[in-house]
Specification:
Layout lengths: L1 E3 L10 H4 L15 E7 L2 E10 L1 E6 L3 E5 L4 E5 L3 E8 L2 E4 L2 E3 L2 E5 L5 E3 L2 E3 L2 E7 L2 E9 H12 L6 H19 L26 H9 L3 E5 L2 E2 L4 E2 L9 H5 L21 E6 H7 L6 E9 L5 E8 L2 E6 H8 L6 E6 L2 E6 L8 E2 H9 L4 H8 L4 E8 L4
Parallel strand pairs: 2-25, 17-24
Antiparallel strand pairs: 1-7, 3-14, 4-7, 4-11, 5-6, 5-10, 7-8, 8-9, 10-13, 11-12, 13-14, 15-16, 15-25, 18-23, 19-20, 20-21, 22-23
């Protein structure tokens, strides 16, 4: 059944025209840029819905529906949506049935997927008997949303530009390693947060446009430009956290002192802790068996009235809902207190640190060079066609 849609956010009905106004670097800044080989226009494949029983798909303009082979089979009227379900291992979209469907808005329209508006087009397919939707969207348009979802749009322009380059580099790094997969990235913090039009803003679009095509490279290859909210005073060497060495993810003093999570604490009753960390009974003692040089917990032994367990810092962070693995645990009678610093894994660029440096007057190339040691800011040359 075809259903009427709510209109996209009014501020974005004209945003595709604003996207035509590209910001370019002045010639005085080009001396430190390195041109990568010519690449085709880049399209990201973003899994925006996975393994659902049903899915609503629509468009702000008339949308062409194509089968998996790319042949047009019908249209969805402007401002309407259709429900996609699975049936006998295949998909049913309105009156059409098949293994996959493309829905492509005409005239620069926006795609609607389960109450969220996106740029680009969508490929809907069955995965494990459920409905999965993959948004195919131009890299730069994808970043308009990622930037606003990952960093406050009100932050200094140089911090936003640094985030744009880091996010673009991370996206291309993931894309280059996902050719055999159904999609390049998801929409959560596991990859990069992506909320479609809802997280776009004029400032995020300006930052993406001002850095269009710019990526960080090391040894001529795009780097895995991971980032986090705040480190709690010092970022980490990657091998101390992920047990694999990368020359550009090195520990540096951070500038994140203004971060809300620079220092934090959580308290749990003895029974609450016992419910979250099971198998040991009431907590009696705690000892850190291994930590990074900066103090992040790698392994911690917990002794209780009914036994003991050794958990990784990541396992404890997940069990207790902590902001990072940079923490200590103290038993205070019937209360368990956890004191910590920072938010995230502590690798690569600290977003609050980037903000701090931007407020001190540093430009985004300097911010990036500080957090990604030994990298080169490069410009992808874009041509027509597929990347």
């Amino acid at each position: 059944m075809i259903q009427p849609l709510k209109r996209p956010p009014s501020g974005f009905l004209l945003s595709r025209f604003a996207a035509l106004f590209k910001y370019s670097l002045g010639l005085s800044l080009l001396w430190w840029m390195v041109a990568l080989p010519v690449q085709a226009a880049v399209e990201m494949r973003v899994a925006v819905a996975e393994r659902l029983d049903r899915l609503a798909v629509g468009s702000s303009t008339t949308a062409v529906v194509k089968n998996g082979a790319g042949q047009g089979i019908g249209q969805i009227p402007q401002g309407r949506s259709v429900m996609v379900t699975t049936e006998g291992g295949a998909l049913r979209l309105a009156d059409w049935q098949g293994q996959a469907f493309w829905v492509e808005p005409a005239s620069g329209g926006y795609i609607f997927i389960n109450n969220t508006w996106y740029r680009g087009r969508v490929l809907v397919m069955p995965v494990e008997g459920k409905v999965t939707a993959v948004n195919w969207v131009d890299l730069e348009a994808y970043l308009y949303s990622v930037l606003g979802a990952e960093m406050p749009a009100s932050w200094p322009p140089e911090a936003l530009k640094a985030q744009a380059v880091a996010a673009r580099s991370f996206a291309l790094y993931r894309r280059d390693r996902s050719a055999s997969q159904l999609y390049d990235v998801g929409i959560s913090t596991t990859h990069q947060v992506y909320k479609g039009l809802a997280s776009e803003a004029p400032s995020t679009m300006a930052a993406v446009n001002a850095t269009q095509g710019q990526v960080l490279t090391h040894g001529g290859r795009v780097i895995e430009a991971v980032f986090h909210s705040s480190s709690g005073g010092q970022t980490e060497n990657v091998e101390d956290v992920w047990q694999r060495s990368l020359p550009y993810l090195r520990s540096v003093p951070d500038f994140d002192q203004d971060a809300p999570a620079f220092r934090w604490s959580e308290t749990f009753s003895a029974s609450q802790f016992e419910q979250r960390v099971t198998g040991i009974g009431r907590l009696v003692s705690v000892s850190t068996e291994r930590a990074t040089p900066r103090g992040r917990v790698v392994a911690m032994r917990l002794q209780g009235t009914q036994g003991s367990r050794t958990l990784t810092g990541t396992e404890l962070r997940q069990a207790l809902g902590l902001r990072s693995t940079l923490f200590s645990i103290a038993i205070q009678g019937d209360t368990i207190r956890v004191d910590g610093r920072g938010y995230g894994h502590g690798l690569g660029m600290s977003q609050w640190g980037a903000r701090g440096l931007a407020l001190k007057g540093y430009a985004y190339p300097q911010i990036l060079a500080y957090y990604y040691q030994g990298t080169v800011l490069a410009q992808i040359q874009v041509a027509q066609g597929r990347y």
